Amino acid sequence: MDVFKSMSAYQHEQLVLCHEPSCGYFGIIAIHDTTLGPALGGTRFWNYESTDAAITDALRLARGMSYKSAVAGLNLGGGKSVIVGDNKRRDREALFRAHGRFIESLKGRYITAEDVGTSPTDMEYVRMETKHVAGLHGQSGDPSPVTAYGVYVGMKASAKVRWGSDSLAGKHVAVQGCGNVAHYLCEFLHKEGAKLTVTDIDQEKVKRVVSATGATAVAPEAIYDVAADVYSPNALGATINDETLKRLKVEIIAGGANNQLAEERHGEALERQGLLYAPDYVINGGGVINVYGEVMGWDHDRAKRKAAQIYDTLLSIYATAKAQGIPSFRAADHVAEERIKAMGNLGGIRV
């Protein structure tokens, strides 16, 4: 791939490739934009099929974090890091301390936290090498509960726009992924009386969600064929693609995964098919809100109250999309870009 071409396509500021041979650490840190503040974004640990795939994922996720923070009204830029390898490996201290040293070399331009394949314990190792890390034990910790709550209220806002009521009682939600965010989300939905169909490649995670909520389990590929009211993607991205668009039998797409659209044209296709799409970086903003709360010294309740604002933010984005005749993801982009532009244009006070 042409790395500089990929960076310039969405105006990324920096891409750092990192290697520590003593522990087999290969890392990528992507910084998209720091206009609003230091770039914040979690560390993903994943066994990518290629270096190009890892770089592409880091760049896309970093951009999503810029927009996520901007839409949420946070004074943060967007970044992301990925560690390439088997996230099941048990000897993690040296790996994450190496990661912390590279983060420290950026001198505060980038703040990390946990993400797919990482945990608060991993962030404790990072903290041994740099202060530019959040999601630690005894502080904000696991962002999954707040992320899930944001997805839940965002799904309710979507229901209000689609059906005139934000009640999810009796609605059928097809949930792809049964990780931490999805587990909490399913508990919220179950408590309200929604019908759940769930799937994951990890059968132990599926069993835990089924046990807690009484959900029906299906095979991973079968989730796209479930006739439901809502499809909720909560695992890795790009599950809205050419193949799945032909199979989905729902009215709303609202979930916690990042980069749900394989390409932007799939967002246009959703609009043509009449499916209401909750832009991913808006509805899953609870995670970055949770981490920002840690940086700012908020307690859990304040972070949750901030995440509850995702409801009104989505209603506003849907209204803008309808008024301008554009897809919801375009409307969300405009909101994020306008805030970044406005803050970037602020001049200093002359004395």
Describe the structure.
- With 351 residues, the chain is α/β, with parallel strands linked by helices.
- It has two domains: 3-63 and 77-127, 3-Layer(aba) Sandwich (Rossmann fold), CATH 3.40.50; 144-285 and 312-336, NAD(P)-binding Rossmann-like Domain (Rossmann fold).
- The chain has 14 helices and twelve strands.
- The protein has helices at residues 3-9, 51-72, 93-104, 120-127, 144-163, 180-192, 203-213, 242-245, 264-273, 280-283, 286-296, 300-308, 310-324, 328-344, and strands at 14-20, 25-33, 39-40, 43-46, 77-84, 110-111, 172-176, 195-199, 216-217, 230-233, 252-253, 276-277.
- Strands 1, 2, 3, 4, 5 and 6 form a six-stranded mixed β-sheet that branches. A six-stranded parallel β-sheet has the order 9-8-7-10-11-12, sandwiched between helices.
- It is globular, with a radius of gyration of 19 Å.
- The N and C termini lie far apart (48 Å).
Q: CATH H-level name of the largest domain... which superfamily?
A: NAD(P)-binding Rossmann-like Domain
- The total tally of domains equals 2
Low-confidence stretches: none
What percent of residues are in strands? 5-15%
Helical residue percent? 40-55%
**Rg estimate, integer Å:** 19 Å
CATH top level label of the largest domain:
Alpha Beta
Number of strands: 12
What do the pLDDT scores average to?
Answer: 95
How many helix segments?
Answer: 14
Return the CATH architecture of the largest domain.
Answer: 3-Layer(aba) Sandwich
- Given the C-alpha coordinates, what overall shape results? globular
Spell out the helices and strands N to C. Answer: HEEEEHEHEHHEHEHEEHEHEHHHHH
Structural class: alpha/beta
- By CATH, the topology of the largest domain is Rossmann fold
Report how far the terminal alpha carbons are from each other.
48 Å
